[in-house]
């Protein structure tokens, strides 16, 4: 039997549709009932105090970094020219907010097995200008959080945890997103749950939360929820900036902000999806384990995934790197899989430093060799483990790869 096997996709039923229809009938299409419900449920699941929903994971990353530029943080406030350590092997919107805030991204390499930067590489990149570390848990694989948190405490820098691929992953029994000062999620269809588009910023710090909301909501000083007035009971009793006393607080702006909110349609879908998350996590792990058991017999041809001993990843995909002495190339196996209706992906941008947008920039710094990022760029690929893939589909992937290796294996 032949399948069309995608790397990722949304899995839903009538509950998501029923919720969206309810929003349409109610006529309240901006943040509303379902937004509040999702925030409550998501906060409870993660064990964090504050959740802000936004229109994408990329916007979540922008807000997480931008919030730390607020003057409320005094000397710790991130300012133009400050350095933020990040990975060269990444999705661009983990890095772009650093540049967009006129800071200097400091690129470091990654480990070939975890595809994450090591604590040693992070510490080696720290200078007197370092204000923050902004890293993703690659493909759902948690960073070396114990060592990283020691570095964060030792150098008194911010830690922004990009969890867009890693909802449900744990380290030392704790969910990722509960380690950093602020963390982000994406609810794009490829991720562990989806709202179609959408994202979230989470934190336990009330000052970060307030700054996130200000930058998200046009830069306004008011913190009322959508459709609410006078939460502070002082709406016409403020005197800020050079405005006249009593100017309407709903229209006082304390930041140069954006409008990055989402709709209640998206939150309604998210409410239904979140209830399915435990089942989704279980299926992703089962699919990963089945592929790992198969690939283990061919580890002479592939660099297989590795993970920290304290980590319990909720995998975004199953990635391998074709070794240099294998009897086939990444291109050959990827073409074979695609020709047999099995989707593959590169590790996002792989080494960002080779992309047109980043070549020749004077506002970046590179620490050390990017050898592993280049190897991943040239020789790495991943296949799907998302919960829409049945056991029969995973079996088909395994049989197809086994046939490819049999054809190409040297006698």
TrEMBL record:
Q: Where is the chain membrane-spanning?
A: none
Q: Which SUPFAM superfamilies match?
A: PLP-dependent transferases
User: What name does this protein carry?
Assistant: Lipopolysaccharide biosynthesis protein RfbH
Q: Which domain of life is it from?
A: Bacteria
Q: Which cofactor does it need?
A: pyridoxal 5'-phosphate
**What are the BP-aspect GO terms?**
polysaccharide biosynthetic process
Q: Which PANTHER family match?
A: DTDP-4-AMINO-4,6-DIDEOXYGALACTOSE TRANSAMINASE, TRANSAMINASE
Q: Which GO terms describe its molecular function?
A: pyridoxal phosphate binding; transaminase activity
Lineage from the top down? Bacteria, Candidatus Gottesmaniibacteriota
Identify the keywords attached in UniProt to this record, alphabetized: Pyridoxal phosphate
Regarding protein family, the annotation reads: Belongs to the DegT/DnrJ/EryC1 family.
């Amino acid at each position: 039997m032949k399948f069309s096997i995608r790397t990722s996709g949304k899995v839903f039923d009538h509950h998501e549709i029923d919720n969206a229809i309810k929003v349409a009938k109610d006529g309240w299409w901006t943040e509303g009932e379902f937004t509040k419900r999702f925030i409550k449920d998501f906060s409870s699941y993660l064990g964090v105090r504050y959740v802000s929903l936004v229109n994408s994971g990329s916007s979540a990353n922008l807000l997480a970094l931008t919030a730390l530029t607020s003057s409320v943080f005094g000397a710790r406030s991130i300012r133009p020219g400050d350095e933020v350590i990040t990975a060269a092997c990444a999705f661009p919107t983990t890095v772009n907010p650093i540049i967009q805030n006129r800071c200097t991204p400091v690129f470091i390499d990654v480990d070939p097995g975890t595809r994450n930067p090591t604590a040693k590489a992070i510490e080696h990149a720290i200078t007197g200008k370092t204000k923050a570390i902004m890293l993703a848990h690659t493909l759902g694989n948690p960073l070396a959080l114990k060592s990283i948190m020691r570095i964060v405490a030792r150098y008194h820098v911010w830690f922004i945890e990009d969890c867009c691929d890693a909802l449900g992953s744990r380290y030392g029994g704790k969910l990722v997103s509960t380690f950093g000062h602020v963390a982000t999620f994406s609810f794009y269809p490829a991720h562990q749950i989806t709202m179609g588009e959408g994202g979230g910023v989470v934190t336990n710090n009330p000052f970060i939360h307030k700054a996130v909301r200000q930058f998200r909501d046009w830069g306004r000083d008011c913190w009322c929820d959508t459709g609410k007035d006078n939460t502070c009971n002082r709406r016409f009793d403020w005197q800020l900036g050079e405005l006249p006393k009593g100017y309407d607080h709903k229209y006082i702006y304390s930041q140069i902000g954006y409008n990055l909110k989402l709709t209640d349609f998206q939150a309604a879908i998210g409410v239904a999806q979140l209830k399915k998350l435990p089942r989704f996590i279980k299926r992703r792990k089962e699919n990963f384990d089945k592929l790992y058991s198969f690939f283990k017999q061919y580890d002479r041809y592939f660099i297989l995934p590795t993970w920290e001993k304290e980590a319990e990843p909720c995998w975004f995909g199953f990635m391998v790197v074709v070794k240099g002495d294998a009897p086939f190339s990444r291109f050959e196996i990827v073409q074979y899989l695609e020709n047999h209706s099995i989707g593959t992906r590169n590790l996002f941008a792989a080494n960002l430093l080779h992309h047109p947008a980043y070549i020749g920039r004077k506002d970046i710094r590179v620490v050390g060799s990017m050898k592993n990022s280049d190897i991943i760029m040239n020789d790495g690929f991943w296949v799907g483990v998302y919960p829409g893939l049945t056991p029969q589909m995973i079996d088909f992937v395994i049989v197809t790869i086994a046939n490819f290796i049999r054809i190409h294996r040297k006698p």
